[in-house]
Task: structure prediction
Amino acid sequence: MKYERKKDKNFWLLARAYLHSYMPVTRNLSDKSVETYKQSLKSYLHFLEDAKSVSDEQVTFDSFNRRNVQEFIQWLTNKRYSAKTINLKLTAIRSFLKYCGQEDFELQGVYTDVCAVRKLKEEKHPVEYLQPAATAAILDAYGTEKAKHRRNRMLLILMYDTGARVQELSDLNVSSLHLNVQHAYVTLIGKGKKSRNVPILEKTVQHMLVFLRDFHPKGDEAPLFYSILGGRKQRLSTDSISMILKTAADIARNHCAEVPARVHCHLMRKTKAMDLYRSGVPLPFIMQLLGHESMSTTSGFYAFATLEMMADAMNKATDNVVNDEKLWKSESIRKALYSLD
Result:
C-alpha cells in the first residue's frame, strides 16, 4: 500500500526543516556547507522536472526511489558532471532522506531504497602539493619595506605553518593567538564552528611578535589580518587572502620555475599536510591539525605513497643490491629465476 498521507506538504516541510534547522543548528554546519546540500537537492528537483515532467508542486517522497536516482546519475553524467560531483550530490540526497526517516518512521523505506544505489567509481589523481623550493619562494615573495607587504608575508607564513583553511585565516582575531606559553599555538574556528588548537613553530612565533608590534601595538582585540577602510580596521575577506597568495605566486614564479601555474589556498594546506606526512608525522596528528572529523578524509587525501616517495624507497632498497654486473649472467641466479613460478 502506498504512503497516502499528505506527502507533498510533508516533503516541503521536512526539506525546509532539514536545511534551516537540522543542518545549521543540530549538525552545526557552516552556511557554505548547507548551501552545497541545498544545491544538490535543487539539482534533483531540476532533474525531476526536466526528465520526469514532475513540477515542484507535484514532488512527493514517491519521487525519491532507486530507479529515479539511478536515472538522475545518468542525467548528470550526460551533462558531463564529474564522478566526484555526482557522488557528492548522491550523498546529499541520502543525508536528506536519512533525516526524513528519523523524523517519520514510514519514510525509512525510502532512505533504504535509495541507499541501494551505488556511487560512481572515482578516478584517483595524485595529490597536488608544492615542492620545498616553490613553498619557500612564495613565502619570501613579499618584501618588508611596506607595511602591507609585511602583513601579507606574515599571513602566508601562518597559512602554511597552520595548514588553515582560508575562512579560518580570515576569522582570526588577536585573541586567537597563544604565544606566551611553553608550546605556542593558534585557535582556529573550523567547519561547524568547531575550534581546534594548532601549534606553530618558534620561528613563526618570532615573526608574529614583530607583526603584532607593527599592526597591534596596543594589544587591543581586533581582526588579526586587516586593511584600513574609512579609518577603521576591516577584516580581510577570503577573496582578499586568495588574491594575496595569487600575487605572491606570480612574483615567486619569476625566479622559481617550480611554482605551478595555479596556486590557491587549499594547495598550501595540502602542501603542509604532505610535508608533515613525508616527515613521518602520524596520520592522527595530521588529522587533528587539519580539523578533519573522519580519519578516512585524511587518509583519502594524504595517506598514500607518492611516486617520489616510492622512487626514493626503491632506490634505497636497491643500493646494496644493484651493481654494474649483469645478475642474469650468473648461473646460480639463472637457476633461481628458472625455478620461480
